[in-house]
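User: My instructor asked us to take a sequence, write out its structure as tokens, and then describe one feature of it. I'm not sure where to start. Here is the sequence I was given:
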Amino acid sequence: MTPLPRAQGWMLAAVTLGIPLSAWGALYPSNTWLQVGPVAIALPFAWRTLARAPLSTASAACITAFVLLHLFAARWSYSFVPYDTWLPALASERNHFDRLVHFAFGALAMVPVVEAGVRYWGLSPRMALVFAVLFVLAVGGFYEIFEWSLTLALAPEAAGAYNGEQGDMFDAQKDMALAGLGAVLVAPWVAGARWWEGRGQ
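Assistant: Let's start with the prediction itself. The structure tokens for your sequence are:
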């Protein structure tokens, strides 16, 4: 296995620290653990994966940024992140923090997925970009199906707090659309960066 670059080791340490911080004083502890638990389970596998199939620090940083954003939002079960208290100018009837995270997923997933496509899956840069956009849309759809499935097992009030639809019957479609928009908007930049040519960077 390849030793991890020091920067990537610090990223894994940040996620490790973020897990208990996310759960500490959580607004809805049971929902928070549903969101934080998978990160805790995946963390050792992430270390082994990066050691066996290295990615650039740029890709690792994108993954870390999304996971930390997710852990931050999970502290308040997404729908109750008090950003309107911190920034009153952004206050609105609906809490939009979950929409920000969906958009960020689409934008941040492009770099590591394109790199993996070029480095490990034998895709051309152009095909890797197309695959990455389709990956974002597919994962977004799968997650919305997972949320719906989970509501069948949760009490109605707990399901509403976890899913964060906030009364919007088209919440799932909007979330997937924002993830796709994030992916499409950064695709030209990812295509131009071509960081895979300097794989150790």
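For the description part of your assignment, you could build on this observation: The helical segments are 6-23, 29-52, 57-74, 83-86, 97-119, 125-151, 156-163, 171-193. Try explaining in your own words what that tells you about the chain.
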